[in-house]
Amino acid sequence: MPRSAKAVRWEIYLRPNAKQGKPVYYVRAVDIQTKKALLTRSTGSDSRKAARELIAELSAKMDFSRLAAAKTGSVDAASAAQMENMPLSEYFVLFWEPFSKIRNIVSA
Q1: pTM above 0.85?
Q2: I need a labelling partner for 41 at 20 to 30 A (CA). Which of 1, 13, 59, 103 fits?
Q3: Is 54 helix (H, G, I), strand (E, B) or coil?
């Protein structure tokens, strides 16, 4: 069952950061149905505005359906079949490519 950005609740919270000496805002996407955290990212800033901008950016570019599937272990059959027959060396290359779909799923 596909999950759009509307099926995700965003949370903004502060965490202390010893390197910067001040708290840093983080954003977290939580699946409304399962209540599982799908994604957590640091803004690297103590600005709430930066957190809202990061939420807008992630909402536009993330595929929450695939992310939720990866978190629950139900990756679609086509992706699983493709990876099943892939040599490990190719998987590593595919995983480390900056804009790889596999990397987006696994790193979530």
Answers
A1: no
A2: 1
A3: helix
